[in-house]
Design brief:
The chain is α/β, with parallel strands linked by helices. It has a five-stranded parallel sheet with strand order 2-1-3-4-5, sandwiched between helices.
Length: 206
């Protein structure tokens, strides 16, 4: 009974989030940068970071409390694809550690299917796969991140490693991102560094 109650709660929460994002998408300008992540990503203070780092206006957070690789394709189609994102930051796996531990091949198969679905729906979308944070050096998370890097390389996506805490200079990061945005690009066409700086800013701001 408790399992069914939790499942119903998750379904209600998901539908509420979908309706909210659908309404916001009607007001949003297409072709921006979208965060598509899980529970910890919902609380990214995007408005504050956007102002502090002069990111411009076309940055959107479409993260879900219970996002997993099993429902990611469905949620992408309903809440992200309508934005026709130019750049997509995928941060998936937080809720899939049990699946990865028991069946890593299934996890990677579903992730690859998601990437292929995104490419078919948004042909010009630049996809960056963001690692899970692993500040405690958990061996399972480390293995998952290794497989994500392999997947990113094989699917010609960028892999952004935010697994470890790193010392970084917010001022230089702001300058790099602001310069690229001022040229009208979300990413530097000759270097992936600005996308890395952007992801580090959004996912490691704390």
């Amino acid at each position: 009974i408790q399992h069914l109650t939790r499942r119903k709660h998750k379904e209600r929460l998901k539908m509420t989030e979908i309706k909210k994002y659908s309404a916001l998408n009607d007001l949003a300008e297409k072709g921006g940068t979208v965060i598509f992540g899980g529970k910890e990503d919902k609380d990214i203070p995007l408005c504050e970071l956007r102002q502090a780092f002069e990111l411009g206006s076309n940055y959107y957070n479409r993260s879900f409390e219970n996002l997993s690789i099993a429902n990611a394709a469905e949620l992408y189609l309903s809440s992200v694809a309508p934005l026709a994102p130019e750049t997509l930051l995928l941060h998936i796996g937080e809720n899939d550690l049990d699946l990865f531990e028991n069946n890593p091949d299934k996890f990677l198969e579903l992730y690859r299917e998601l990437v292929c679905k995104i490419k078919s729906e948004s042909r010009d979308c630049y996809i960056a796969i963001v690692s899970l944070k692993n500040y405690d050096n958990d061996s399972l998370i480390a293995k998952l991140n290794e497989r994500l890097k392999y997947l990113a390389d094989s699917e010609r996506c960028e892999f952004v490693d935010v697994s470890q805490k790193k010392v970084w200079n917010p001022r230089s990061t702001k300058d790099a991102i602001s310069f690229i945005c001022s040229l009208g690009f979300v990413r530097n066409l000759k270097s992936h560094e600005p996308v890395y700086d952007l992801a580090r800013t959004l996912f490691c701001y704390a």
